[in-house]
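Complex 244.
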Amino acid sequence: MVWERETREYDGKAKRVWSVRGAPDLVILQFTDDATAFNGVKRASIPDKGRINVEITTHLLERVAAAGVPTHLVARQGEDLVCRRVSIIPVEIVVRNVCAGSLAKRYGVPEGTKLAYPLVEHFYKSDKLDDPLMTEEHAVLFGWATREELAVCRALALSVNDALKAFWDGLGVDLVDFKLEFGRLPDGTVVLADEITPDGSRLWERGTGRHLDKDVFRRDLGDLSATYRDLYARVFGRPFVAGS
Ligand SMILES: Nc1ncnc2c1ncn2[C@@H]1O[C@H](COP(=O)(O)OP(=O)(O)O)[C@@H](O)[C@H]1O
Ligand SMILES: [Mg+2]
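Predicted structure with adenosine-5'-diphosphate bound:
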C-alpha cells in the first residue's frame, strides 16, 4: 500500500502535516531538515536530519509498540511517517531520569544529577506561551485533558521510558530525558503520537557524556548533522547513506 500526500495542512517547526488521499483517518508527517531552538528564535537547516529522524522515530515507535504502548504509527515512506490521525492532547509529557536543561535551570540543581526515580512533568503545548510548565490540575481545570487521560499518559510514558532506557543502554547511551505527545483516536482511545527523536530527547554517550542530541545545536557544541549520522549508525549498525 502506498499513501499519497494530498493537502498541506500545517507547517510545524520540524515537520509538515499532510492529509492523505482517500484516507481521512490518516495523516502524513513529513520530517524536514529544519531545526529550531528556544521556541523558534534560533533556526537552521541540518542536512539529512529529516530522513534520520523519521527512521529513528519509526524504529523507536516500533520498539515501544512491542512493549505494549499503543501508537499512531502506520508505516514509513521515505521521509514521510504515515500515522493514524488523532486529536492531539495539548499536554507535552516530559520524562526525566537525570537532571538537565530547564529542570536544572529552574531549581538550580546541577546538570547530571541522577534522579532516584523517573520524574514526569507536564507542559502546556503552546508556542505562543513558550510551553509553560503546569500540573495535572491545570490541565484538568482548563479542559485540556481528563484525569483519566492523564493517568493513561503517565503510565504509557513510564512504559516508554522503561523500553527506551533499556534500548539506549544496550547502545552505550544514557537516556537523560525526552518529550512525548499523546492524542485521541475517534473512539477516545489515547495513543502515543508525534515523534521520538534526538530533537526531543537528551542522549548522553556513556563514559564521555558527549551529547548525541539537539543540545549540540542549542549550545553550539559541534556539527549536528554529523552527530545525528553517528547516532543513526549506533541505532541501525550501519552508516547513514543519504538518498537511500
Ligand atoms: N497522529 C497525528 N495526528 C494529527 N496531528 C499530529 C499527529 N502526530 C503529531 N501531530 C502534530 O503534528 C505536528 C508536527 O509538526 P511539528 O513540526 O512537530 O510541529 P510543532 O511546531 O507544532 O511542534 C505537531 O503539532 C503535532 O502535535
Ligand atoms: Mg513538534
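Residues 87-221 form a domain with the D-amino Acid Aminotransferase; Chain A, domain 1 fold (CATH 3.30.470.20).
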